[in-house]
Design goal:
CATH superfamily: Amino acid/polyamine transporter I
Strand content: under 5%
Largest sheet: 2 strands, parallel
Structural class: mainly alpha
Strand order of the largest sheet: 1-2
Shape: globular
CATH topology: Amino acid/polyamine transporter I
Oligomer: single chain
Order of helices and strands: EHHHHHHHHHEHHHHHH
Helix content: over 70%
CATH class: Mainly Alpha
Number of helices: 15
Distance between the termini: 47 Å
CATH architecture: Up-down Bundle
């Protein structure tokens, strides 16, 4: 029997996932289109994500914490379930590939000048195969143990350069409306972290406060992300497009003497931990979707199947981050991902409507029987 994770662990997993892609390269991508309005672009993206989170929490209550698999099969059929879970599987692999490349790029920039992708790939593949075989419970425990260190490190790293922020860089306000939309569109792959809550439905020990805690967690983390982007713009303004390592570049802008290198190394180490946890979360979710589709498959064989498309992507892109970012932020790829982000909430609404109709019919039949008995 699969061990359930706690609602607290779910909230911590959500925190790690929300910040991982938004604190590194995607602030620069948003700045490329929205300029100093990039924080507005991020705010709108997170606002949309918040609406979906509210829908998922309502779905959890409506279906009494049934799994997403059960909800799909009971309301839209097995074919829709397999189609949906196949799309989710490859979407998770794509995001995992992006995070893996970010880790590799981080190693190249901050640890080793010449770090062979082969020697990077071998231990990563072994680690992820182990994670896929062990499941989300092991990942959740790891996140729980490391979360305080990561959270404190991130907060300190962002507080240090706060005195160097120029609020004038945030003005004029909303002068690039088209760029705001473009920035959101081309960075859409960095959003949709609510998928974690959706896929873990039925696999979490819920209590009366779980739904509220999930919503509060999202609100706090989303506000934190927006403040991070505001600080990013306040430090770099329009040259943010030339600062792709947002989380590591920002601490260097501090008035504290002789501390830049030390702060830079601290942020690099902390961020490496965060990205490694994030790729473990994504691959564990991918393994879980595969198990849901094929329950009889053994965990170790499942881990091999999950690694194959990830490794194939690593080979195709040769762990070239620029090439991968060019693909995931392209018009066609962004459109597909956006469609995927819209499809899932629509399916959820459809399932809720279908289930409500079924329940109403059952009540009508029961009432009719009572009338006939009288």
């Amino acid at each position: 029997m699969v061990k359930k994770i706690t609602s607290r662990q779910l909230c911590l997993l959500l925190c790690i996932s929300v910040i991982s892609l938004k604190f590194l390269f995607f602030p620069a991508i948003a700045s490329l289109y929205a300029k100093n309005d990039s924080y507005i672009s991020v705010f709108l993206g997170l606002l949309i994500d918040m609406v979906v989170v509210l829908l998922i929490v309502y779905t959890m209550k409506h279906f009494n914490n049934m799994s997403f698999k059960e909800i799909l099969i009971n309301n839209v059929g097995k074919i829709a379930f397999y189609v949906m879970y196949t799309l989710i599987f490859f979407y998770l692999i794509l995001k995992a590939l992006l995070v893996v490349k970010e880790v590799h790029h981080y190693f190249l920039e901050f640890l080793y000048e010449d770090f062979s992708w082969i020697w990077f790939t071998i231990p990563i593949i072994v680690l992820l195969m182990y994670v896929c075989a062990k499941g989300m419970h092991a990942v959740a425990r790891s996140v729980e143990m490391l979360f305080v260190v990561i959270a404190v490190g991130i907060v300190l790293t962002l507080l240090i350069p706060i005195g160097s922020i120029n609020l004038e860089y945030l003005q004029p306000f909303f002068t690039h409306p088209t760029g705001v939309v473009q920035g959101l569109f081309h960075s859409v792959v960095a959003y949709g972290d609510w998928l974690i809550v959706l896929l873990l439905m039925g696999k979490v020990k819920l209590n009366e406060k779980s739904g509220r805690n999930i919503i509060l967690t999202c609100l706090v983390v989303y506000v934190f992300v927006v403040l991070f982007i505001v600080e990013y713009v306040g430090l770099f303004k329009n040259i943010g497009i030339y600062k792709p390592y947002a989380f590591s570049d920002m601490p260097l802008y501090t008035d504290l003497p002789n501390n830049s290198a030390r702060i830079d190394w601290l942020s690099s180490i902390i961020w490496t931990f965060d990205l490694m946890l994030q790729v473990c979360i994504l691959m564990s979710l991918a393994s879980g979707t595969l198990k849901d589709m094929f329950p009889k498959i053994k965990p170790h064989f499942c881990s091999v199947i999950c690694i194959i498309p990830l490794f194939a992507g690593m080979v195709v892109f040769y762990l070239n981050l620029g090439r991968l970012l060019k693909v995931v932020t392209s018009v066609w790829c962004s459109a597909v991902i956006l469609g995927f982000h819209v499809l899932i909430p629509l399916v959820l609404v459809m399932c809720i409507v279908i289930d409500s109709v079924k329940k109403r019919k059952v009540v009508e039949v029961q009432n009719a029987k009572k009338v006939n008995q009288k």
